[in-house]
Amino acid sequence: MNALPTASQAREAAVFAGTLYRDKGLQWFNGRVRGDGLARTRLKEGRLDRYAVYESIRARGPMVRTRMGYWVTTSHTLGNQVLRSRGFGVRDPELDLVQGGVSRDFDLSFLGLNPPDHGRLRRLAMPAFSPKMMRTYDTMIEKTVHQLIDQAEQRGRFDLVADLAAPLPIAVITEMMGVPNEYEADFQRYGAALASALDGLDSLRHAREVLGAVGALDRIFSSLFDLREREPRDDLVSTLVAQRGDKIHPHELTPMCQLLLVAGFETTVNLIGNAVIALTDHPEQWRTLVDDPQLAGATVEETLRYLPPVQETGRVAFEDTELAGVTVRKHQWVVTLLAAAGRDPEVYDDPNRFDITRTPGVEHLAFSSGVHYCIGAPLARLEATVALRVLAERMPGLHRAGPVTMRRSTTIRGPLHLPVSVR
After folding, report:
1. Could you tell me the pTM of the whole model?
2. Mean pLDDT of the chain
3. Which position has the higher pLDDT, 154 or 98?
4. Full set of structural domains in the chain with CATH
5. What pLDDT, on the 0 to 100 scale, is given for residue 116?
6. 52 or 43: whose pLDDT is higher?
7. Residue partners of 176: CB distance under 8 A and separation at least 6
8. Residue 218 near residue 210, CB atoms below 8 Å
9. How far apart, in whole angstroms, are the C-alpha atoms of residue 101 and residue 397?
10. Torsion over CA of 311, 317, 320 and 326, rounded to 10 degrees?
């Protein structure tokens, strides 16, 4: 393995990734002093009680202007409107910034593209996440979950993240993409590093870690592309390689595969972890699931509403736009707080109650909305549903066995360590 990139390369990456949260520490501190609600989500109080901060933002109105010059909404209705509108996008075509402020030189494939390029690349990956393909993955997911639980059951006390929530989606996405088994541990480590960049780069060390992951994955995928060109198989990488130079440009192939890795891994890890946190925080809901494991799918949906893995997403206005009585100027960003929208009292009854028997009238925004609706949503739902169902069937006595360590990231919310026991 080659050495990590040099400090000068890291500095370049940090410049490329100069985000809306550039000079984070100073801006967040100033924001807190001046009452900037969104800045407070990045501080200790936001990490300890994120939803209290969201409610303080909600109390100020449906559209709140931050001290950093962009808008924030906790409204499900407004968030859905912005995410669906073609008047907003994930990239400012004139200033060349994508959501979060990351430049074209440091982007994650079609996640950071507006139509029509977004649609062109998305259509190439969509067949891998179709209902037909989900049915083919079902058996493999079930088998993998049972194998992981077999190992955890022998120990009695285990880390739900390290022993189930993380290895499950990595096993699935590597199988889907046709990645050799020996790369599974590398993919888990590098995928987590790429996902951490969704909050922006906050130090030279962080930049080096992310650049190192990008370089390592680039080498792995380059070798895999060459292998699948010589020996094609029935997997996603073979499908994409076959269209290289036709429907997908060569330089787009590696970033696209890196994105699919993150999309197929990070959301599921935190979805499963958040579901178990919510269930162990509400023992009566865990008992309800144990009594009827077929409620696993409903549990996944309630978790996505109540404690979603992705907390927020940004869109930039292409033209001056009126929203809820305010004018969003061209080039201004609107941050939709997806997690707050999931607890919008205008849309959900008793929104702060976790209830796996809830029948919501409106779909949550946990997977975004509009043309950038999460491509990996069907797979994340399937993996989490199977995992929760099997846990309820085989480990009815599951309970928390120690303090939870949460990830420090802002965009992605979930446990880093979640000790549980069945004894």
Report:
1. 0.84
2. 82
3. 154
4. 7-421 (1.10.630.10)
5. 52
6. 52
7. 128, 137, 235, 236, 264, 379
8. no
9. 45
10. 0
